[in-house]
Automatic annotation (TrEMBL):
Membrane-spanning segments: none
Record PANTHER family: ANTI-SIGMA-F FACTOR RSBW, ANTI-SIGMA-F FACTOR RSBW-RELATED
The keyword Plastid is assigned to this record: no
Organism of derivation: Streptomyces longisporus
Span of domain Histidine kinase/HSP90-like ATPase: 27-110
Keywords assigned by UniProt, alphabetized: Kinase, Serine/threonine-protein kinase, Transferase
Name the record gives this protein: Histidine kinase/HSP90-like ATPase domain-containing protein
CDD domains reported in the protein's UniProt record: HATPase_RsbW-like
One Pfam family hit: HATPase_c_2
Keyword Transport tagged: no
């Protein structure tokens, strides 16, 4: 099963996206919204994105968030206990079996793969 949605990255889009993915596991919804929030925080509100959630032949769930800026790459930070930001990609890193970035000439896709529950 594949879910795909084009939207503008805005704070309002985050709960709407969670609602669209309500049949998916909590970890899937968390990773998708963290990757979307990174676009809002680092590229700005209103950035067009494509969200994809697919099952893989290896029994994993793949999440992809594509945006139009191939230069703004995600960075895994080590947030301090009092920091108000910097934990989103760390959460993805902990929950995902792997993650990365595919760069194109005019876009990038940040992706992660999660183990499907029960496997």
């Amino acid at each position: 099963m594949t879910f795909e949605l084009d939207l503008l990255a805005t704070p309002k889009a985050v709960p709407e996206l969670r609602h669209h993915l309500r049949t998916h596991d909590f970890e899937v919804r968390l990773c998708v919204t963290e990757l979307l929030t990174n676009v809002i925080d680092h590229l700005g509100e209103g950035t067009p994105v494509t969200i994809r959630v697919t099952g893989t032949s290896g029994g994993h769930t793949r999440i992809e968030v594509t945006d139009p800026d191939p230069r703004a790459l995600p960075v895994l930070l080590s947030a301090t206990g009092t920091a108000e930001s910097g934990r989103g990609l760390a959460l993805v890193d902990i929950l995902a079996r792997c993650w990365g970035v595919d760069q194109g000439r005019d876009r990038k896709t940040v992706w992660c793969e999660l183990a499907t529950p029960g496997r």
